[in-house]
């Protein structure tokens, strides 16, 4: 008889962010092992990708998850688990209030149901409106340090989180930012004519990414060097980009900000790019504890990455193989990396595209973790 698994979180299915995508990948991985998997989150009641989806949203027309909604959603999650715990062999939570997790843990423990959590973040106080006094931040820290105990199995996205939970006595499986690489892999990675090196950034720089370092690095290049590259920004308006320039410097002409566009347009732009570029501050806990899904998406799409090596990126990115590594968190270090990128030949770029896809298939495809994940939850004798 197949094992029944519930993934329960605050994410929206099917149309969600990176968190929803991650849980979908984990669900697919378990389905490969014959598990019957269901999803529960803030989306609608539906069937998506063959998975039955339950909703926790008490106000379906309200897509904004504020503090009040967060608490209501958490209460709904705990109530759902208490009512249905006997229907599942394992329940895996992600991004839920600490009090709700404690209630679900008690329900699972009383019924002998495997209880696990997927952890992908360790936020900083400055990421919350009221800093260290913010209710959301305090709840986040309570979840990381108190709500989880050795009875909870932990799936961690990074070695930083793995070490933290192992120190608490938890059984931990590290699963990086995985995607379905076969859905991403480009059909053509052959040599392309080269006129300018096309760079791409997609995201919200105010949250985690240090786009200001990238823009400062471009400003440090000579006019001739800037003429050999182009940077397209998605999710960033022209005004936002100009606001990130240091000392009122003008936005370089080679930078083009497109603002928010449909995801299909972003994917099309990604496949036309030579590199994606990403900088994060290594002194920040969030940069070490998380792993950017955009790196997996880039490699899987056959697009090498220009980046500094925060978190576990050093395990996946290699200089001149699938990346141009930024040796330090500074504009000058980033500028030096850009100089190395713009002198690469079309043949070298084609080789790096191929190695990017190869890395993603071997190390960052959800299929590579299917058996490990199932055995982690249920033990080898459970299958």
Kindly estimate the percentage of residues that lie in beta strands according to DSSP.
Answer: 15-25%
The CATH superfamily label of the largest domain reads Glycogen Phosphorylase B
Oligomeric nature of the chains: single chain
Class of the largest domain in CATH?
Alpha Beta
User: The biggest beta sheet, please?
Assistant: 8 strands, mixed
Question: What topology does this entry show?
Answer:
Layout: E1 4-9, H1 18-32, E2 36-41, E3 46-48, E4 51-55, H2 67-84, E5 90-94, H3 98-111, E6 114-119, H4 135-147, E7 153-156, H5 159-167, E8 172-174, H6 181-184, E9 197-202, H7 211-220, H8 223-226, E10 229-234, H9 238-243, E11 255-257, H10 263-271, E12 275-278, H11 285-289, H12 293-300, E13 305-307, E14 323-325, H13 331-342, H14 346-363, H15 370-378
Parallel strand pairs: 1-2, 1-5, 2-4, 5-6, 6-7, 7-8, 9-10, 9-12, 10-11, 12-13, 13-14
Antiparallel strand pairs: 3-4
Helix pairs in contact: 1-15, 2-3, 3-4, 7-13, 12-14
């Amino acid at each position: 008889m197949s094992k029944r698994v519930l993934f329960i979180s605050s994410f929206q299915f099917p149309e969600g962010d990176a968190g929803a995508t991650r849980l979908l990948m984990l669900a697919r991985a378990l389905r490969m092992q014959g598990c019957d998997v269901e999803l529960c989150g803030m989306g609608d009641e539906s069937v998506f990708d063959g998975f039955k989806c339950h909703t926790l949203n008490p106000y379906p027309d309200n897509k904004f998850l504020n503090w009040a909604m967060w608490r209501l959603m958490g209460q709904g999650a705990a109530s759902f688990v208490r009512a249905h715990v006997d229907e599942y062999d394992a329940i895996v939570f992600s991004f839920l209030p600490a009090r709700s997790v404690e209630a679900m843990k008690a329900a699972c423990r009383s019924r002998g149901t495997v209880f696990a959590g997927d952890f992908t973040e360790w936020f900083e106080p400055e990421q919350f409106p009221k800093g260290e006094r913010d209710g959301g931040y305090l709840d986040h820290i309570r979840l990381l340090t108190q709500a989880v105990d050795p009875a909870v199995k932990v799936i961690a996205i990074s070695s930083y989180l793995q070490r933290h939970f192992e120190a608490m006595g938890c059984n931990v499986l590290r699963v990086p930012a995985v995607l379905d690489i076969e859905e991403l892999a480009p059909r053509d990675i052959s040599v392309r004519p080269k006129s300018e090196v096309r760079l791409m950034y997609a995201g919200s720089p105010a949250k985690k990414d240090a786009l200001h370092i990238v823009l400062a690095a471009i400003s440090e290049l000579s006019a001739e060097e800037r003429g050999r590259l182009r940077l397209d920004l998605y999710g960033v308006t022209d005004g936002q980009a100009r606001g990130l320039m240091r000392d009122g410097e003008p936005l370089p002409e080679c930078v083009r900000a497109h603002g928010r566009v449909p995801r299909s347009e972003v994917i099309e732009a990604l496949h036309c790019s030579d590199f994606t570029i990403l900088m994060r501050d290594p002194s920040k806990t969030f940069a070490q504890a998380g792993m950017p899904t955009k790196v997996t998406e880039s490699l899987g799409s056959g697009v090498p990455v220009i980046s500094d090596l925060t978190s576990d990126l050093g395990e996946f990115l290699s200089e001149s193989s699938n990346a141009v590594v930024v040796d330090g968190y500074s504009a000058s270090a980033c500028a030096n990396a850009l100089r190395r990128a713009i002198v690469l030949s079309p043949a070298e770029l084609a080789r790096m595209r191929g190695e990017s896809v190869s890395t993603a298939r071997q190390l960052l495809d959800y299929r590579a973790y299917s058996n490990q994940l199932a055995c982690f939850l249920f033990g080898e004798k459970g299958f």
